[in-house]
């Protein structure tokens, strides 16, 4: 039953626990003393004297005097329980004491005492209660294998106002001491640990045997002292082997001596003296109870007036649950004493106690535990072997590293495979089409028409150095990819040079064969042609694109730098050619005596070849047409196929169209021939002019492409330099990643720039909201932020330069003007405003009107509201609030999953893997379909 005894908790610090530690335990709670009344049967003496039963229990709670003395009125007494004379002690225990008796098992002090006149049955009842309580406690301990219990017992009696130890009779009178923490304690009181229930019972028996008992007229075995048997129960969870904290509480089983009247007990001498002490201490108890029942309104509580009340102080209005069983004789002869008992009981039931769960913290055990821990740590510290926890951590980490390395190898293998597949496909495409055009779209950065100018990264002072440096420093390209791009770029450079060559050759041919324009212009063309021919593009370019390793990057970059001059030269030459052609055209127009030139004939405009720079076509359309990479001859051939002027007319031959060159001329035919010659001359001239015009357009386009190539080269150089810088700094510091803190700063900076650029470029506010809400500064967001910044920088530059770009240029939409971007934004706002009523409740809308200062009663309030959103790029709170409103209107919370971060990413993948960025206009379209 009682397991391995714990050390005594008396050396520990007792603290009332604020929370229960086991089921059934209670928090601090106030409850009344539980008062029951037990009426014993008439004793043999009473029966012998024909005493009458003066009381009847009308129900389980009420007892009433039978008024046998014919008093004027009888008052019923009610209590928590009333047990009549037939009631067994077990029931009294079950209904009147058990709940309180078991409280110490959950750390709550408890007291059960019997009060009543002599021979009323107190000892009889308490014996039964004690036996039942011991049994139940034993059962509880047996049924709680998860806890360790220690049960200790002490016994004392207060005899003639002297405290005696019932387990150590020889110790003599014991002193009462006042402990600031524990209250009143009995000095040197022996406390025995019960080994088991039998041991406990035997100890209890010893106590009872030691108690002062004497014979009186009313009771052969009258208790002459107040007996207190105290069971102290300490318990803790088994798993808490350290036993630093445990519950500790006591159960006081108190059998009071009975009040007596000397006349009745017929005592004298010793018994009289005993009775006198008994009565005096009981009187104090009654006073204490009476005062407590008045809720403290009666002032000082005289606990110290008797040893009984001093010892029982916690049980009377203190930290204890208390049950009082008032015993009484039913006899008419004891009517008055019984009334006194019931009066006492009535007062007692008004007394409130404040029981708490008591936790003990064993300082000694605590100290021992700490010492053990220190010893353990010291051992670990001095041990050459890492502690087991560290060991397992290292093993775990090692395994993770190995796993990551395997994954990396796998990724590398996949990448190499993809690259070789790409190479193969490129070669196949090249062989199949014979055109180098098809490699253009697989650039690691935007192709010519999507390229951006780093010169324009600075946005009129709106860019900070920090953001700019970050953009430059952070490259996602790897060395082999860069070399690959360099080679491709060189190849395109070569192609452009060759195309320029062919264009000028054709021009030269036209000029020289037709003797067109002024001599100066013709000479200029010839000079240009020879200059361009001298440019040896092919010298440093291998036909195949070979991806070099990291080691060749420096060579590549130095070559690129030197080739930058060549490209710039080509650009310059093409500009000269453009000027010369302009001069040529001018001289042709001045010398034109034959009527309107096709260049001035609006009806022929439609027959002009669609050039990449033509306002009649989108730039992208032409770039993607096959014509773009064809020489001017091919261009002309295409042109001729579409013009009403027959090809033969444009190419003067000695024979006519039908090949009748040998036919003799007649006057009619001569006149006719003269007209025909004139007409043919005019046609030749027109055709030549048209060809020159086409060549001029073509040269202009070439010039633009060369300029873009130049920019790409610069960007590539930057990327290579930045890569080298990264590698250097990484190898120096051993760190390659940006610290979270510095990224956070960069992120804030970049976001502010992006917000400003959105504003300046009239970007869709739905796009702004999506981007703003998706990218909140995760380290993974770095690439997206950079890409967005680059896109916007390019766009802003374009808007500033030509005023002819639109956000749509970044997406897949056809190009339009700045004004159309503004118009699109306006439309988007209108669409959002329309959605306001379906997406927001009237109340929400009204709140927004108030928040955004939309005047009440105004027209188009929804539109007014939407027009206020995303208008102040300097105010971050405004931006946040705007994003919230737009998100609600679009319903991102519900359907926002269709927008993923990847949509904002610059494409570095192969065309087949490419997930195209939706473009701002497309996002607006999406909005319309939501
Ligand atoms: N409920 C009961 N049923 C039967 N007998 C009882 C009952 N209560 C008491 N008695 C008997 O009455 C007698 C007196 O009881 P008890 O000694 O317990 O009284 P007491 O109140 O302790 O008296 P005292 O104050 O003098 O010690 C005993 O012989 C006891 O066996």
Automatic annotation (TrEMBL):
Q: Which SMART domains match?
A: KISc
Q: Where are stretches of biased composition, namely Low complexity? A: 14-26
Q: What's in the GO CC field?
A: microtubule
List the InterPro entries. Answer: Kinesin-like_fam (IPR027640), Kinesin_motor_CS (IPR019821), Kinesin_motor_dom (IPR001752), Kinesin_motor_dom_sf (IPR036961), NACK_C (IPR021881), P-loop_NTPase (IPR027417)
| Region feature Disordered, mapped onto this chain | 1-28, 596-674
According to the UniProt entry, its GO molecular function terms are: ATP binding; microtubule binding; microtubule motor activity
Q: Look up the coiled coil feature and give its residue ranges.
A: 360-428, 560-587
Residues noted as binding ATP in the record, renumbered to the chain: 116-123
The alphabetized UniProt keywords are: ATP-binding, Coiled coil, Microtubule, Motor protein, Nucleotide-binding
Name the family the entry cites: Belongs to the TRAFAC class myosin-kinesin ATPase superfamily. Kinesin family. KIN-7 subfamily.
PANTHER family listed in its UniProt record: CENTROMERE PROTEIN E (PTHR47968), KINESIN-LIKE PROTEIN KIN-7B (PTHR47968:SF39)
What name does UniProt use for this protein? Kinesin-like protein
Species per Swiss-Prot/TrEMBL record: Papaver atlanticum
């Amino acid at each position: 039953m009682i397991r391995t005894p714990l050390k005594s908790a008396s050396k520990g610090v007792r603290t009332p626990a604020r929370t229960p530690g086991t089921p059934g335990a209670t928090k601090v709670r106030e409850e009344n003393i539980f008062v029951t009344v037990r009426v014993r049967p008439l004793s043999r003496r009473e029966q012998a004297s024909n005493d009458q039963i003066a009381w009847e229990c009308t129900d389980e709670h009420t007892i009433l005097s039978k008024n046998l003395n014919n008093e004027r009125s009888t008052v019923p007494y009610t209590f928590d329980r009333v047990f009549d004379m037939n009631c067994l002690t077990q029931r009294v225990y079950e209904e009147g004491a058990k709940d309180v008796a078991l409280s110490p098992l959950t750390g709550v002090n408890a007291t059960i005492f019997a009060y009543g006149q002599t021979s009323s049955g107190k000892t009889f009842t308490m014996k039964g209660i004690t036996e039942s309580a011991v049994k139940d406690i034993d059962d509880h301990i047996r049924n709680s294998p998860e806890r360790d219990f220690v049960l200790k017992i002490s016994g004392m009696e207060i005899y003639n106002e002297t405290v005696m130890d019932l387990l150590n009779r020889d110790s003599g009178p014991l002193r009462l001491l006042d402990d600031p923490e524990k209250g009143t304690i009995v000095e040197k009181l022996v406390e025995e640990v019960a080994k088991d229930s039998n041991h406990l019972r035997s100890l209890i028996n010893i106590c009872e045997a030691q108690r002062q008992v004497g014979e009186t007229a009313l009771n052969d075995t009258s208790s002459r002292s107040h007996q207190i048997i105290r069971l102290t129960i300490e318990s803790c969870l088994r798993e808490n082997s350290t036993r630093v904290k445990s519950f500790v509480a006591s159960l006081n089983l108190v059998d009071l001596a009975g009040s007596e009247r000397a006349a009745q007990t017929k005592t004298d001498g010793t018994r009289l003296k005993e009775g006198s002490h008994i009565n005096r201490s009981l009187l104090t108890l009654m006073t204490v109870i009476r005062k407590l029942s008045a809720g403290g309104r009666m002032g000082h509580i005289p606990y110290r007036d008797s040893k009984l009340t001093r010892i029982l102080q916690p049980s009377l209005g203190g930290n204890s649950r208390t049950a009082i069983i008032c015993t009484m004789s039913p006899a008419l002869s004891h009517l008055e004493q019984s009334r006194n008992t019931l009066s006492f009981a009535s007062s007692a039931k008004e007394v409130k106690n404040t029981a708490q769960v008591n936790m003990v913290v064993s300082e000694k055990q605590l100290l021992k535990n700490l010492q053990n821990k220190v010893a353990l740590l010291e051992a670990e510290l001095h041990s050459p072997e890492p502690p087991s926890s560290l060991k397992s951590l290292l093993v775990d980490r090692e395994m993770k590293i190995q796993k990551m390395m395997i994954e990396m190898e796998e990724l590398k293998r996949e990448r190499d495979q993809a690259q070789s597949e790409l190479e193969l496909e490129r070669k196949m495409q090249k062989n199949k089409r014979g055109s180098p055009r098809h490699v253009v779209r697989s650039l690691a950065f935007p192709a010519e028409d999507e390229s951006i100018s780093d010169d324009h990264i600075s946005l009129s002072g709106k860019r900070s150095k920090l953001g700019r440096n970050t953009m430059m420093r952070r490259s996602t390209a790897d060395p082999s990819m860069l070399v690959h791009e360099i080679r491709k770029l060189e190849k395109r450079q070569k192609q452009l040079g060759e195309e320029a060559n062919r264009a000028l050759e054709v021009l030269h041919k036209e000029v020289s064969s037709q003797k067109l324009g002024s001599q100066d212009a013709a000479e200029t063309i010839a000079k240009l042609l020879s200059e361009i021919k001298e440019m040896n593009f092919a010298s440093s370019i291998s036909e195949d694109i070979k991806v070099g390793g990291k080691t060749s990057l420096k060579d590549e970059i130095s070559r690129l730098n030197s080739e930058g001059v060549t490209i710039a030269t080509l650009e310059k030459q093409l500009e000269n050619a453009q000027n010369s052609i302009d001069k040529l055209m001018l001289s042709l127009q001045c010398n034109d005596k034959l009527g309107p030139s096709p260049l001035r004939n609006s009806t022929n405009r439609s027959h002009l070849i669609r050039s990449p720079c033509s306002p009649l076509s989108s730039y992208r359309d032409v770039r993607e047409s096959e014509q773009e990479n064809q020489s001017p001859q091919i261009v002309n051939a295409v042109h001729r196929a579409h013009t009403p002027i027959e090809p033969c007319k444009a190419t003067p031959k000695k024979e006519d169209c039908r090949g009748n060159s040998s036919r003799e001329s007649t006057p009619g035919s001569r006149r006719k021939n003269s007209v025909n010659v004139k007409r043919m001359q005019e046609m030749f001239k027109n055709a030549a002019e048209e060809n020159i015009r086409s060549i001029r357009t073509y040269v202009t386009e070439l010039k633009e492409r060369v300029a873009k190539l130049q920019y790409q080269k610069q960007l590539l150089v930057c990327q290579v330099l930045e890569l080298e810088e990264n590698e250097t700094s990484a190898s120096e510091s051993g760190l390659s990643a940006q610290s979270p803190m510095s990224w956070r700063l960069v992120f804030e900076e970049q976001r502010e720039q992006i917000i400003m650029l959105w504003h300046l470029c009239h970007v869709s506010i739905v796009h702004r909201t999506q981007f703003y809400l998706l990218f909140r500064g995760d380290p993974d967001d770095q690439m997206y932020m950079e890409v967005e910044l680059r896109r916007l920088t390019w766009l802003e530059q374009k808007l500033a330069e030509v005023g002819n770009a639109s956000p749509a240029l970044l997406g897949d939409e056809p190009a339009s003007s700045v004004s159309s971007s503004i118009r699109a934004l306006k439309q988007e706002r209108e669409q959002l405003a329309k959605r306001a009523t379906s997406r927001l409740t009237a109340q929400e809308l009204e709140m927004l009107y108030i928040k955004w200062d939309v005047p009440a009663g105004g027209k188009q309030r929804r539109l007014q509201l939407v027009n206020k959103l995303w208008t102040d790029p300097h105010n971050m709170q405004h931006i946040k609030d705007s994003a919230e409103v737009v998100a609600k209107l679009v319903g991102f919370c519900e359907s926002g999953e269709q927008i993923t971060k990847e949509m904002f990413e610059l494409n570095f993948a192969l065309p087949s893997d490419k997930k195209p960025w939706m473009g701002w206009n497309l996002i607006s379209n999406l909005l319309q379909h939501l």
